[in-house]
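Person: Please comment on this record:
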Amino acid sequence: MYKLAIINQKGGVGKTTTAVTIATRLAHLEYKVALLDTDAQGNVALYLGLDPADALHSLLIKEWPITSCITYANHERRLAVIQSGTKTTLAKTVLSAQRAPIDILARALEPLQELADFCII
């Protein structure tokens, strides 16, 4: 699985728009794509017409199985979305207090290896 992170500390520079555009195009090309929204504004759901959810919080803090945290954004089930919401800020705060918080995210995303060709974060 290929992983692509769209990151920049400045807001309003098009990170979400870029991530959604790349993910939807790859899905249109018939790749299986996982799109992970890490922004508490939850705009990925808005862009894709999904009902808001705090799936990232459930995955990282409640330790739900990743399959319970995925919403599919197309009927072909090629674009799997792990949505973010207002509880994402809480999740970031809790994780930042942990030893090796990036490892927690990496372990939580391991099952995506079997589900997706690309992971866009």
